[in-house]
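RECORD TYPE: protein structure
NAME: Dihydrofolate reductase
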Amino acid sequence: MVSIIAAVDRNLGIGFQNKLLFWLPNDLKRFKALTTGNTIIMGRKTFESLPKGALPNRRNVVLSSNPETQCPGAEVFPTLEVALQSCQPEEQVYIIGGASVYKQAMQVADMLCLTEIDAEAPQVDAYFPAVDSAVWYEKSRESHPDDEKHPCPYAFVDYIRK
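PREDICTED:
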């Protein structure tokens, strides 16, 4: 099963200068809970944005068209298609970014695990693709208000392919 996991603002913004738009501890906890023990696939810039490199207790897969790319603790593949072919049928795969990888993965994903943030980031240079309601069905939504650790309301929303 291939899932896409992302946090998006009201305009589907996902990042600015290779950084997340919002610091939401519960979103990070959910990300860790879902992806630990599974395979994560990301672009090279997303890998470079990880503060400590490869994420522990996960199979880290990085996409790069440059055959010289070295990502310590991760396997590198030239395309999403080749990376997915390296996965076993029973492997749970999460696509974790960035924008161009999300765009490619929308064609093959079975599920979207989105954190929909009820705010607009002041500066955005990377966006998530539109979620087409003709293709995706909202399976579940768990809404959360803002609080002392979360500067704006957000919801964990899972979509499945129709």
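COMMENT: The chain has a mean pLDDT of 97.
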